[in-house]
Design a protein that fits this description.
The structure holds two protein chains of two kinds.
Chain A lengths: L1 H24 L8 H11 L5 E4 L2 H4 L4 H10 L6 E3 L7 H13 L7 E5 L15 H5 L3 H13 L4 H19 L5 H12 L24 H12 L2 H11 L13 H13 L3 E6 L10 H5 L6 E3 L23 H19 L18 E6 L5 E7 L6 E7 L21 E4 L1 E2 L5 E6 L9 E9 L2 E5 L3 E3 L3
Parallel strand pairs in A: 1-2, 1-3, 3-4, 4-5
Antiparallel strand pairs in A: 6-7, 7-11, 8-9, 8-12, 10-11, 12-13, 12-14
Chain B lengths: L5 H16 L3 H17 L6 H23 L5 H34 L17 H17 L8 H9 L12 H9 L9 H31 L6 H32 L17 H4 L5 H12 L9 H19 L3 H23 L6 H20 L3 H13 L19 H20 L2 H8 L2 H18 L13
Classes of the chains: A alpha/beta, B mainly alpha.
């Protein structure tokens, strides 16, 4: 018996030591499309001072050239690289971060990490997908297990997830099936070519979802465009803070803290960001609030991040299209500048207004002294009021919120909201002058403070 | 579930542990039977009835034949019933669509309005192997070479024994059934020998065969784009692939059976070093070639008649042997090439004698065997003919060089070919020479175990992440 045990032990020693040696010579352990971005970064790491990590939402949202341009305009020039990857989950991002830190980046000053629910560790029905395997290291074995155990899945699913986790980790740690790739990499390195099979990323790591040839993304987009009321309802739900219970996923704050500490030790500033999304994210806001001291930017509140919640900026409920990415990259630069000037835990002021001011349309009703009023492009929250005057005046210089209706106004009325960004009402104009034109202007106020005004509208006599 | 999959390794680990934990031989046999049925059912449980049915018919028929023999009769009717059932099952599942399709095509070619006669039948995995195995048993009982076994579970285990169930070796009842009655202990198992054999097979299949399949697949898919050199490389690659794939499976099967205390017959003996085509068939797929010899060639009369009678028997045996591999005319042509080569060799031996010019003879044998592989592998006759022309007359149908090992694109085709093939050929030779046995003689046992661990890690690293099914599973 003892002899058998000795032989089993010897066999395992041979196996483990050899696998360990293979691991040690495998300097680019990622072999899915991850290689494209990482392979490029490995060669050019000293060109960049700001890196973005995260999932497809970041991958398709952040245009480094737009971000850099805006940062330069704001007086803080950057050279950024979008290192986010489609399909990345928080544990995967952690792996990338470790890979990055192991390279000892000298120029990188800031890393922006997308926050996401840790419970999303597995892709359903994607058994043996490359990304499922390549990110599972011995280091992340226990943390990922803890995530599975802490999740809200039933025990049967937990058993299944645990089994997959063990097998995937074994496959990756033993480098099963990767020998030829490792030899290729070693040869490529020896020739000074960088890693083999790397297609240099275009646009500093940004990929435009509009140009995707993948049928999955095309279908998702068609469905999104075909039913515009659904996203509006989703945003309305978010504005009212109605979060479905099932969305409260596990949140591994200790790993986030460890990430921030490791980056800080390397002289790199960390910013966590909750990216905008039309549907609900995967964790409750209370959970985000609990780690706010870690410098978390929350950009998923539609009412507070109004400029990036126009439907034409979105490809689907989770991803921005090219137009949206352009807007977001610039917007993000502005928010980041504001955010970094604040002490930890504080948040920048909300932006309740879209880039364009609300619009107001006024039209006389037929056969009745009634002025029909229609407003659109409104902030998602606030009281919508209309003032009617006989004259228009110049407002105080530099105050875009000033009303330009001569006071006292002839009439004031509150419009009823008819949708997320629309309102309407009818003004009884019997008492108003009939022979002269009228001027109408809309304002939106939150807690008594005007946050948006429309351009004044001239209404010709009836 | 295939031997080079992690799933099988887990399955086997469980069976192995449970098997040797059981106290009696009877319980172990029942466990093996259950495991074997599960193994076969893991492909498609619906076909379990087929294999169990086949075993049941042959079990009953052999008992009846035995009883008839004891009464002084032959029991021919029961043999006929058994063969009809086995061949009928094989014929329906494997050949119905082929013949129906060929007849339909022929009739349409004559201008007759015939609709599609095929049924789209799914081929049950391993059907050619288990029907042949069961048939040989009944024939042996009929010939009086074997006594009918009285234990149904034992017989069912003989037919379904999972290490050799789906791709052989085709085990003879006389070699296996007596082993079921032997008392076995784990102490008697030569673990080094069994593991070494399994590991050899694993390397052949998972590392060599699967890695070398790429260039062959590429060229066989559309040879018209490639140079004659590329076609030669593809044919070489396929030859190595099919040998390593099949002999790798056999090695793993033999190693697995050994770990359970059973011995299976060897199936290969360096076939590409054969000195003649006759010698090739004494080295390639031994369990099939001896089966064909004993149950077909000899039944047809063997070489008991005149020269032409013997040649006819040889041709018929090889044609049917070709058809055994697959329901397709390409397999028939493959069999025909071997048949013609065997006839020519017989005539050569008759006129010139055996063992002349051994080196030239080896080369010529290899050249012929590889030519035949073209027809075996190609999807249609156009492809076969295009490749055969390149093989025979160095005729390049295209100008592209086959992609071999992309990281060194600046190297010439020959250099890349050498860089890829040399380590694989070396591995091939090492594994085929039973290096593990030699190692055991010169190294202490503990070092061999340690080396097995090292080799296992390297083999796992160099196997493709997605295991390819064994080529012979389709037969």
């Amino acid at each position: 018996m003892l002899r058998r045990l000795l032989h089993i032990t010897l066999f395992l020693i041979g196996l483990v030591c050899t696998s360990g040696w293979i691991l040690s010579i495998d300097s680019m352990p990622f072999w899915s499309w991850t290689r494209n971005k990482l392979g490029h970064l490995d060669k050019e790491i000293d060109r960049y001072d700001t890196l973005f990590l995260g999932s497809s939402r970041m991958h398709y949202a952040l245009m480094p050239d737009v971000f850099d341009r805006r940062m330069a305009e704001l007086g803080a020039p950057t050279r950024s690289y979008n290192l986010a990857l489609s399909g990345q989950r928080p544990h995967d991002v952690d792996e990338i971060l470790q890979w990055l830190l192991a390279r000892g980046p000298k120029q990188v000053k800031r890393v922006v990490i997308e926050l996401c629910c840790w419970e999303l560790d597995y892709r359903e029905g994607d058994w043996m997908a490359v990304q499922e395997v390549e990110m599972r290291t011995a280091r992340s074995f226990v943390p990922r297990f803890r995530t599975i155990l802490a999740g809200r899945a039933g025990w049967q699913e937990k058993v299944s997830l645990s089994f997959h986790h063990v097998v995937h980790t074994l496959v990756n740690v033993l480098r099963i099936g990767q020998g030829a790739r490792i030899v290729d990499d070693l040869l490529a390195r020896a020739r000074g070519d960088g890693y083999g099979m790397v297609y240099p990323p275009v646009a500093e790591g940004y990929y435009c979802i509009d140009e995707t040839p993948l049928e999955h993304w095309q279908r998702v987009h068609r469905e999104f465009v075909a039913a515009p009321t659904l996203p509006l309802e989703a945003i309305a739900g978010k504005v009212k803070n109605i979060a479905p219970d099932w969305l409260a996923g596990t949140f591994r704050s200790e790993i986030l803290r460890a990430e921030a500490a490791a980056l800080q030790a390397a002289g790199i500033e960390t910013v966590f960001v909750v990216l905008p999304e039309i549907t609900w994210g995967f964790f409750g806001r209370a959970q985000v609030a609990s780690i706010r001291d870690l410098r978390v930017m929350e950009l998923d509140h539609p009412q507070e991040q109004r400029p990036i919640f126009e439907l034409d900026l979105w490809w689907d409920p989770s991803h921005l299209c090219r137009k949206g990415a352009e807007r977001f990259s610039s917007y993000f630069a502005e928010r980041l500048r504001e955010f970094e000037s604040l002490p930890p835990g504080e948040l920048p002021k909300p932006r309740l207004v879209a880039d364009q001011p609300p619009t107001l349309a006024a039209q006389w009703a037929e056969g009745a002294p009634t002025l029909g009023l229609q407003a659109s492009g409104l902030p998602f929250v606030g009281k919508v009021e209309v003032q009617v005057g006989a004259q228009m005046v110049d407002g105080p210089a530099g105050d875009p919120m000033a009303l330009r209706i001569a006071q006292p106004s002839l009439a004031t009325m509150e419009l009823a909201r008819t949708g997320l960004a629309t309102a309407a009402g009818s003004l009884d104009a019997a008492a108003l002058p009939k022979q002269a034109p009228l001027f109408v202007q809309l304002s939106v106020s939150v807690d008594g403070k005007v946050v948006a005004v429309s351009d004044p509208v001239r209404v010709e006599p009836r | 579930m295939i031997f080079s999959e992690p799933r099988f390794l887990l399955f086997f680990l469980l069976v192995f542990t449970a098997y040797w934990s059981l106290p009696t031989n009877m319980l172990r046999k029942h466990l093996l039977l259950g495991a074997s049925l599960y193994f076969y059912g893991s492909w498609d449980w619906k076909f379990l009835g087929l294999i169990v049915g086949c075993a049941t018919v042959d079990f009953v028929a052999s008992l009846k034949i035995q009883a008839a023999r004891e009464r002084g009769e032959k029991g021919k009717a029961w043999l006929f019933a058994s063969l009809t059932y086995d061949l009928g099952t094989l014929g329906f599942f494997k050949y119905y669509d082929f013949f129906a399709g060929s007849i339909g095509e022929g009739l349409r070619g004559l201008g007759l309005p015939v609709s599609d006669l095929t049924l789209g039948i799914v081929l049950p995995v391993g059907i050619s192997f288990f029907t042949f195995q069961a048939m040989s048993y009944t024939i042996d009982v009929y010939r009086g070479q074997l006594k009918a076994v009285r234990s149904y579970p034992d017989f069912l285990l003989f037919v379904t024994f999972f290490p050799q169930l789906v791709a052989g070796p085709i085990v003879r009842a006389s070699d296996f059934l007596f082993q079921l009655d032997e008392k076995r202990t784990f102490a008697k198992v030569d673990v080094h020998l069994a593991l070494g054999q399994f590991l050899s097979g694993f390397i052949k299949k998972a590392v060599i065969a699967d890695m070398i399949a790429g260039p062959a697949d590429l060229v066989f898919k559309d040879p018209s784009a490639y140079t004659a050199g590329s076609i030669w490389i593809a044919v070489f690659c396929y030859s190595i692939q099919i040998y390593c794939d099949f002999s790798g499976y056999s090695d793993m099967a033999i190693g697995t059976a050994r770990l359970l205390g059973y011995e299976l017959c060897p199936n290969f003996r360096f076939p590409y070093l054969a000195t003649s085509i006759t010698d090739f068939w004494r080295r390639w797929h031994l369990s099939l070639s001896t089966w064909l010899r004993d149950y077909l060639y000899i039944t047809l009369g063997g070489n008991r008649g005149g020269r032409w009678f013997t040649h006819r028997n040889l041709m018929l045996t090889m044609l049917l042997g070709g058809l055994w591999h697959g329901a397709g005319w390409n397999f028939v042509v493959w069999g025909a090439i071997h048949g013609v080569a065997l006839v020519v060799h017989k005539e050569w031996v008759r006129r010139v004698g055996e063992g002349k010019l051994p080196f030239v003879s080896r080369l010529l044998t290899l050249y012929t065997v590889l030519l035949a592989w073209i027809f075996f592998r190609a999807a249609d006759f156009t492809t076969s003919w295009t490749m055969a022309k390149a093989w025979l007359w160095w005729e390049s149908p295209g100008t592209t060089d086959v992609t071999l090992w992309s990281p060194v694109p600046e190297w010439g085709l020959l250099a890349r070919c050498g860089a890829l093939l040399t380590p694989l050929l070396l591995l091939h030779v090492l594994t085929s020479m039973n290096t593990h046995l030699r190692l055991r003689r010169v190294l202490p046992a503990w070092l061999v175990t340690l080396l097995f661990g090292v080799i296992s890690a390297l083999a796992l690293a160099f196997m493709p992440i997605e295991a390819r099914p064994f080529i012979y599973f389709q037969f």
